[in-house]
Amino acid sequence: MNQKKLYRTIESVASKKFDSEEELLIDVLNQIVVEEDIIINGGRIWELDPVNKSYSLIYQTGKVDTIQKGFQLDIETNNIFEKVVEQRTVLTHETNEVLIQKGIMKYSASGVGEKVKIDGKAYFKYLFAVNADEIDRVLLYTLNIVATVLTSKLHEKKIATTQKHLLADIDKAKELQKSILPDHECSFHGYEIFGVTIPAEIVSGDFFDYISVGQEEERLGITVGDAASKGLAASAEAMYISGAIRMASTFQLKISPMMYRLNNLVNKIFSDDRFATLFYGEISNDRNGLFLYANAGHNWPIFIDSKTKEIKYLKATGPLLGPAPKQRYETGSLNFNVGDVLVIYSDGITEAANNEYDMYEEERLEKIVLENLDKSPREITYAVLDDVVKFSTHDSRYQDDKTLVIIKRNDNESN
Question: CA–CA separation, 38 vs 315, rounded Å?
Fold first, then answer.
């Protein structure tokens, strides 16, 4: 499952105009139930009833016997609702006898919307519940994305009528963000690297960084991230994550534990409608060109073998940062030979759109890189950006922050 594309799909559905929060939730649930890539049998939407201290059924769909609208689940006798607050999405077996008789045996519940306190305990305003024959971690990742996007959209609709841009603060944020971005070019043990970020607005939710790792700086960390949405809130999250990675590098953590801790931090610090994708990789003075990496739901970087022109995508090794704590992240690896190129990018590149709503997409990015494979990372970067500009419309409604980092191994220098 491509997590970022799933996010874009759900965001597109949720961005339509709705008369109420319930109408938005119902439309998204109906879309999920018929989605071929998400195999579920049915779904329900529950709304918190603070007066009766329960969750009340407001909608159901799918292949499940009809449950009476308004059916309630008591929050004081069911600790699953507290677990949802802790984990965002919970996979479990049904224990309510009425619901079991309706054919619901295994289900997943995800928290959506703002949190409301009852007797000192927090509960999500809405629950998204689905039942399926296979309740697994892939479904958990999927529903975490759905719940995060919906929470974000509900939050946006709530503040849309009162939000004002504070220009002076934005100018300060712009200068601060510029001050922490690295130089575009970097050379390290036979590798040449070039990166650039182009904000869609004054400040960017995209970021990249080069980080020296180890007491003797024998490794170099390269990171590219994309905080959800655009503008000031996204830039604040981007700066926080970038700073946290730099701090982690001083402790020389291995990649998987670092990603685990970083996800927990993002989940704890930022609100429920905030998340980020992140790709982190390390090159070293290893003669064999070993490259270790982790991909937290980010666009899949493109690795091109300079001899065979074979293309490999560095797929996600773990979920997005933020929606849920205590997630696992695996570490992947590959080997750079001389001339090989790695292209790390944000979706502002591949999802740049023209006036016909066509997207730039990975295939066109591959083509431009292959045509310029013998050139420097700087030249490859500007060739891609020039092609994106030629392809896409200047209508800002269809533009996003753009980040591109190119890594190329020029020789097999080692210590």
Answer: 19
